[in-house]
Each structure stands twice: as C-alpha cells, then as structure tokens.
Design brief:
Elements (H helix, E strand, L loop, with lengths): L6 H28 L5 H30 L3 H24 L7 H47 L15
Helix pairs in contact: 1-2, 1-4, 2-3, 3-4
C-alpha cells in the first residue's frame, strides 16, 4: 500500500496556516492606514478582496489538509482549483497594481504569499496526478481480478456431464 500524499505540499500547508493570520493582520492594518488616500473604487475592491480571500483561504486550507493527508482526490482537486483561480490572481493583483499605493511591507508579504500559492499549485498538481494514476491502476486491477474470479476454470466443459445419449 503506497503512500500518495505529498510531504512538501503538507509542509507548505502547515507553514501557510501560520503565515495567513500574519498576512491578514498586516494587510488589514495597512488597508486601515491607507484607506483615506484611496479612491472609492479601490476602497470597494480592497474590502471585497479581503472578505473573499479570508473565506476562500479557510476553505482552501481545509481542503488541502483533508485531500493530502487522507488521499482524497475530490478535496485535493478543490484545493488546487481554489488556489489556482481565486487566490493566486487576487494576490498577484494586490502585488502588481500600483493604483493601490502599495507599501514595502505589504509588497513583501504579498510576495511570500504568492510564493506559497505558486508552490502549492505545482505540488498539488503533481500529487493529484500521482493519486489519480495510482487509484485508476488499483481500480483496473480490482476489475481484472473480479473478472478472473467470474471466468470458469480451464478444462471445465461448458456442456453438462452425462448428456452423451
């Protein structure tokens, strides 16, 4: 029985769990400080992003832990999709949009967070691929053994014994 979970992915998730509250706190404090200087459009966008990232990150980390440790493909696939689509583009938006008046501390924590997300996208992809291939092979072998058990033994005639009259 081969272990399919990924240690590098699990380590990244572990450190991400401790980094996220730190990232959230710094981002909220900096948002509070620069809020009066932002345009109304960016105020709305940043508040929406903070709510979206907060909710998505909690769900994403839970799915990553369950999917990786318990070797569950649907949960790990959900983790991979939540990392790839809402989280990574949002963090890259926060990192590269100069209209947000980015501070150096803010840029530093966004770079670290985007590095976590980028690594997790790659690690989850390779882990998912390995899990799916292994589970598909197990399924095929199980089906093959089931068919072998149903097949009649060699040398047994399909005609009933004693019907030679």
């Amino acid at each position: 029985c081969e272990i399919l979970s990924s240690l590098p992915l699990q380590m990244s998730l572990y450190f991400n769990v401790y980094f996220f509250p730190f990232w959230w706190l710094i981002t909220v404090v900096i948002l509070y400080l620069k809020y009066p200087a932002l345009s109304d459009c960016y105020k709305f966008i940043l508040v929406t992003i903070m709510i979206l990232v907060s909710l998505t990150e909690l769900i994403r980390l839970y799915l990553g832990y369950v999917g990786n440790l318990l070797e569950k493909v649907p949960e790990l696939a959900g983790f991979w999709l939540l990392t790839l689509f809402p989280q990574l583009p949002i963090i890259l938006f926060l990192l590269f949009n100069e209209g947000l008046k980015i501070h150096s501390l803010e840029r530093a924590i966004h770079i670290i967070f985007s590095a976590f997300l980028s690594f997790q996208v790659l690690a989850a992809f390779f882990t998912l691929r390995r899990m799916v291939n292994t589970l598909a092979t197990r399924f095929r072998l199980t089906e093959f053994h089931r068919l072998e058990e149903q097949r009649p033994a060699p040398g047994v005639s399909s005609r009933a014994a004693g019907s030679g009259s």
